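New to this. Help decode both lines:
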Amino acid sequence: MRHVIALDVGGTGMKAALVGDDGALLHRARRATGRERGPDAVVAGILDFAAELYAYGARHHGTPAAAGIAVPGIVDEEHGIAVYAANLGWKDVPLRDLLAERLGVPVALGHDVRTGGLAEGRIGAGRGTDRFLFVPLGTGIAGAIGIDGRVESGAHGFAGEIGHVVVRPQGAPCPCGQRGCLERYASAAAVSEAWAAAGGNPDADAADCARAVAAGDPGARRVWQEAVDALADGLVTALTLLDPRTLIIGGGLAEAGEVLFRPLREAVRRRVTFQKLPSIVPAALGDTAGCLGAGLLARDLLAGAIPTTPEVST
């Protein structure tokens, strides 16, 4: 059976799969990134992990035809460069070429959120939708702009960075250098911080806040509503610019279910004027989205939808 290697690299762990042409997951595996040993060790670990997947696939299913890999940070997808990732400590790593040399198959490199958005758009919550915006609410907030089965990366690889839309001018400082960024108010990390401060419990997190909201705690409801209002402000800015048919919300905060979605839909509805109100739905693929998306990148590569080498202008 023809199949591809799919690898999703996170800040602390890697998820991988062998994916058949029909989308079936033939094999799954996980491994730590080993980031505590430094960026060179992380890259070596990725290459070794991919080689083990290749060997497993060759033994059980025939030689893998291609590989797709999703990584965090700043990614130059056109040239196959992992430009920068603070959590992993690397800079300007030619990861596509390194993997292609190690495996001997064509490799596609993608940004983790855009790759997850590709999967959600094609086979997840956005399936059948021509225009969508995928927004995972995790430690930070990013976005993936889906257009007719592909995800827009922008002229310089920065498209979709909705977490750095300013929603509270002169608000809390953000590591990006601005003040009042959306992810400082509506990410899972921001809700955890606000709820820990409100309740005086440094170990409290966003999941605890969601449970307290569901139980009717007024303090939790205040913290939660502030996050929802900030998120709605950011989303309305995005839908004004992009006019998506569907907003797909994922990440840790979305695990709260209707505790999040009920007030969020209402907050967005109150803010729209001339804009068309999109469907606001939870992501369907969970933490497998990045890996499944990496598999789609590899299959697109085989189909010729992604060039193996960048065009050279003369």
In short: The chain has a mean pLDDT of 92. The chain is about 40% helix and 20% strand.
